[in-house]
Amino acid sequence: MNTGTDDRKELGTFLKARRAELDPFQVGLPDTVTPRKVAGLRREEVAKLASISTDYYTRVEQGRMQASVPVLQALARALRLNDDQRAYLFDLAGRPPDEPPAPSRRAVAPHTRRLLAQLTESPALVLSDTMDVLAWNRLAATLLIDFGQVPAEDRNYVWLLFNDPALRALYDDWHAGARACVAYLRMHTARHPDDPRLRDLLARMDPHADFQRWWQAREVAVQGTGNKVFHHPVAGTLVLDWDTLTSSTAPDQHIVVWTAQPGSPSEQGLRRLAANAAAQGSDECPCPPARLS
């Protein structure tokens, strides 16, 4: 088992490896004519970029001093660390980062979009932590609403559930579904209280009395699976199970998939919807990348 000293030594080795990968030009420093004994940035250059003294940085790298959280943040920026490298740096230092995680990333990976497109008999979409609809497959658009026709700023499941009559009418128990969404959204505020997308959504939801009452009740929930009953104008009544899958590479994006019991009328209804969706176009995922701030 590692000791604190072992971690500080590993932290120093990690810092050396990261500064060896950079050159002055990459980080905006003028290169000098003095030959470099080793590749990468010198200690004094890292210290300059992090706005700390060379002696301070040297002692951190040599494992003789435990860096403070602000210094670790400065070093992470100076060394251009990605999210995983930054997390590793703080773990080695025994310091939890005090900067909140970045708000939800909106770009959905191509392989995730491909997965959605290949789910031809199961409606599926990708939601952010704030329940923005980031991507969807053709059957989700057929079952719910055509998200491609919704302006990007309105493409949020909570917003649509309260404001789109067609989506609202699909729900057998709209109050239970909407209240569960509000509870999920309230859970998000603990992780990203300053997310500008969340603030904007809350401001826009101000006129809705039901939303305000449930929001003030401060109910919280993160439910990964459940059951929904929809009344669809084409497929009839659909009793569907839903599951939420979270990608390890994009933990702030959640794939929601609806399925029906094999052999049930609901499965037949989904197949009818799938046939209608296929007749309207290819099975390629129609959703464009979402660009929300």
Task: Explain the overall architecture.
This is Helix-turn-helix domain-containing protein. Pfam families: HTH_31, MLTR_LBD. InterPro entries: Cro/C1-type_HTH, Lambda_DNA-bd_dom_sf, MLTR_LBD. It is a single chain. Helices cover 45% and strands 12% of the residues. With 293 residues, the protein is an alpha+beta fold. It folds into 2 domains: 90 residues, 434 Repressor (Amino-terminal Domain); 171 residues, Beta-Lactamase (2-Layer Sandwich), CATH 3.30.450. Strands 2-1-5-4-3 form a 5-stranded antiparallel beta sheet. Strand 3 and strand 4 form a beta hairpin. Helix 2 packs across helix 4, helix 8 packs antiparallel against helix 10 and helix 10 crosses helix 12. It is elongated, with a radius of gyration of 25 Å. It starts with a helix and ends in a 13-residue tail after the last helix. The C terminus is likely disordered.
How many structural domains?
A: 2
Query: What is the percent of helical residues?
Result: 40-55%
Would you tell me the overall average pLDDT?
85
Q: Major sheet: order of its strands?
A: 2-1-5-4-3
